[in-house]
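User: We ran a pulldown and think these components assemble together. Before we commit to crystallization trials, I'd like a predicted model of the whole complex to look at. Sequences follow.
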Amino acid sequence: MSTNLLVPDAQTILKLQAILPETVVLAAFDIVDRGNVIKYTTSWGHTHYEVLGSLAAYPVFIDLQAGTATTMYCSCPAFTYAVLTSGTHLMCKHILATRIAKQLQLYVQRGVEEDFLTNNIVQHYTNH
Ligand SMILES: [Zn+2]
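Assistant: Here's a predicted model for the assembly, 128 residues in total across the polymer chains.
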């Protein structure tokens, strides 16, 4: 039996580095490694992801409906500036971490009650 330690192979890292800065790639693997990607699942089967950053927890949305401006969204400042505004990055480290965690099933699972999720979202969007 192998352990669940995250050891990305060199090819994966090279591929990611071709489209993203090395710092973003390494930071994303670090986030996954620390178990900082949380997958919330509600009682009715809805899921959403949250990434614990050093300063805040960021709700991260991947696989959004086609037809929206972007299929991914993160609430961190880097996403707003580097992805949405300047377009220099394809995604931020939180989104990359979430995608890696989802792929490798290395997220932490938590269930949420409807009230908690609603409050969380309302709080998030009223903080701006
Ligand atoms: Zn982010």
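The chain has a mean pLDDT of 81. That may be worth checking against your pulldown data before setting up trials.

User: Thanks, that helps.
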